[in-house]
Amino acid sequence: MKVAGRQYRTIWLEDDGWSVGIIDQTLLPHSFEVCRLTTVEDAARAIATMQVRGAPLIGATAAYGLCLALRADPSGSSLERAGQQLIATRPTAVNLRWAVAYMIEALRDPKVTSLGDGERVAAAYDLAAKLCDEDVAINQAIGTNGMRLIEMARSAKSDNAQPVQILTHCNAGWLATVDCGTALAPIYQAHDAGIAVHVWVDETRPRNQGFSLTAWELQQHGVPFTVITDNAGGLLMQRGAVDLCITGTDRTTAGGDVCNKIGTYLKALAAHDNGIPFYVALPSPTIDWTLHDGGAIPIEERDPGEVTHVSGRDEAGQLRRVALVSEGSPAANHAFDITPARLVTALVTERGVCAASREGLLGLFPERRDDVQEA
User: Where substrate is bound, by residue (predicted)?
Assistant: First the structure.
């Protein structure tokens, strides 16, 4: 993606060849700033504080966090400690655990452990770079497969010149991945192919990733959009102003249940009630093949201050954090919810589109059959 004419990924190696650059997403949309990670502690803090967020990008950051840990101490015990430290940062997104396991398994290979310290560290960096490149390729394929659904929606309209109206929730775009995005990848590809699209971007309380990230991304790319409150989606669906919904996911079970940002379930219910397709875009590392029931997914509970306070720019251009509730008001901050498979029209993966079911997923990923537990 381009920002002010310059091409960016969301994570990269700096010119020194070892430290890691990221975009500080906590400052968007008011300020675009990059940060440099030099230790595994930096990587863990970036994940925990949501300087990086989105399941695929969290995984990529963890992979480079392991590289930074090995650079400081190339021992096997250092690798294990760093893996545990990174996994502990956020419990819901399965990509984090997947990326750490992917890296550790590869770095435990005797061919790697027999290398000298410097070569082992170099091997870790190569693995992390490969993981990032694979994420980009996966998301490009998701974009291609999902764009067909947008083309179907356009074909169903009486006037093809009218834009396809798409509602999304949270941010599942370029900023949530290494590049391209998951739920936004089909939208970008459709827009670039000349298909008229318009995106309803809801705020996504309490951290407002829709307002601060999705809207900013779409504006950078030139995609038409309108920001709305979280609870406006149902009314828009009732009035025929939404042709389809598409979201991302932080973890999807082998049975097709979807865990995504809090509020996703309510969007799916409204879409179901109004006969509107509800699609979920996901890279295969986001599938938890060991779980069938979404109720078993741990739901992250974050700082209640994210609910009771909000940050923004005042009329003088200064960033301020202000309270929204009376002092001492108790608050709860559940970061995700579960959308049952029965409410999901289809899953969009890098291998194609399938039903949100065990059979649908295994039809695209038959090699995972032995990993799937019976319901």
Answer: 53-55, 90, 209, 260-261
What burial class does residue 221 get, using C-beta atoms within 10 Å of its C-beta: 0-12 exposed, 13-18 middle, 19+ buried? middle
Give the torsion sign (CA, 219, 220, 224, 228): negative
Binding residue per annotation — 209?
A: yes
Q: Count other Cβ atoms within 10 Å, centred on residue 156.
A: 11
d(CA 324, CA 309): 5
90 known member of a binding site = yes
DSSP state of 230: G
Could you give the count of Cα atoms lying within 13 Å of 21 in the half-sphere of its Cβ? 11
Full set of structural domains in the chain with CATH: 2-133 (1.20.120.420), 145-371 (3.40.50.10470)
| pLDDT, tens digit, 9 for 90 and up, residues 263-302 | 999 999 999 999 999 999 999 999 999 999 999 999 999 9
pTM over 0.90: yes
Q: Which residues make Cβ contacts (< 8 Å) with residue 316, sequence separation at least 6? A: none
- The Cα 177–Cα 52 span in angstroms is 9
DSSP state, residue 311? E
Residue 358, marked binder: no
